[in-house]
Write a structure and sequence with these properties.
A hairpin with a 2-residue loop joins strand 3 and strand 4. By secondary structure, this protein is an alpha+beta fold. The relative contact order is 0.26.
Length: 87
């Protein structure tokens, strides 16, 4: 990441299992809800977004982490609720 990281770094796994189960859809939802792009930062500096290749939780695909906390089997409908935990 070339930009300063946000207060909370969001990592979305795009390894094989997570990609096949919708990791890319999670990234699209973050773009829609927060205006985040991979490598980007929200305007308020709160969140930054990284696409990663594997977090080692393939059985929980798709996986996203925020500030080291792992969220598994994430659906696009759950993204807002997960983000609310860090508001």
């Amino acid at each position: 990441m070339l930009n300063k990281p946000g207060t909370y770094t969001i990592q979305v796994c795009l390894g094989t299992a997570c990609y096949l189960k919708g990791g890319d859809i999670i990234i699209e939802e973050l773009e829609k809800q927060k205006g985040l792009t991979v490598g980007g930062l929200t305007e308020d500096g709160k969140f930054s977004l990284e696409a990663v290749r594997c977090v080692g939780c393939c059985g929980l695909a798709p996986v996203m982490t925020i500030a080291g906390e792992v969220f598994g089997k994430v659906t696009k409908e759950q993204v807002a609720g997960v983000l609310d935990k860090f508001s």
